Amino acid sequence: MMHRGHSRRHSPEDEAARRRWQHPESILEGIGLASGATFIDVGCGEGFFALPAARMVGPRGRVCGIDIDAEALDLLQEKAFSEGLDNVVLHRGMAEEIVLCNGCADVVFFGIDLHDFVDPVRVLRNAERMAAGSGLIVDVDWKKEPLPLGPPTAKKFSTEHAAALMAEAGLAVRTVAESGPYHYIVTAVPEDKKGN
Q1: Smallest Cα–Cα separation from 47: which of 19, 96, 80?
Q2: Which uninterrupted H or E stretch holds 167?
Q3: Is residue 155 helix, strand or coil?
Q4: Strand locations in the chain, DSSP E?
Q5: DSSP letter for each residue of 96-152
Q6: CA gap 43, 117 in Å, rounded
Q7: Using one digit for the tens of pLDDT, what is the confidence trace for 38-59?
Q8: Buried-most residue among 92, 166, 176, 177 (CB within 10 A)?
Q9: Class assignment of domain 30-169?
Q10: What is the pTM (predicted TM-score) of this model?
């Protein structure tokens, strides 16, 4: 279950402000998201990453969003329909309980939410099951330091802690890097597929 003591609904002004410090298209291009790919956004919210991903993967690709917030999913679906994006499929539920497929995803993505899950290792194990042979698990999250935005420092995961959770879930970390002024990005692959 995702633990959220506050609403994650955002106004268009909020999204414009967020884009000043986080550019989803650049992040998705940086991880190699390509036309025709299957992208699973765990904790997709209103689609800050899911909608750009849907544009990038195109009509032959698919974006699957998972979230517990029905209203956020409704808003995301409305936005997708208004843009003519019919490659977005949404699933309401707890990420600890959902495995959409076995080995179907080119990318399983966590956009600033891994620290929100009650059982992040279980969520990462589900991600490992959904990742294809060459699939990538991506965690973008807040740097564990005092910042003018985001949750309290104590709630954030350091890159070392995020990597340790991934390893516990059977993932092999590929890269750890900064992602803009406030975030880092960790990429991993399933341990038994790391040679692919």
Answers
A1: 80
A2: helix 159-168
A3: helix
A4: 38-42, 62-67, 88-92, 105-111, 131-142, 171-179, 183-190
A5: TT----SS-EEEEEEES-GGGBS-HHHHHHHHHHHEEEEEEEEEEEE-SS--SSSS-
A6: 9
A7: 999 999 999 999 999 999 999 9
A8: 166
A9: alpha beta
A10: 0.90
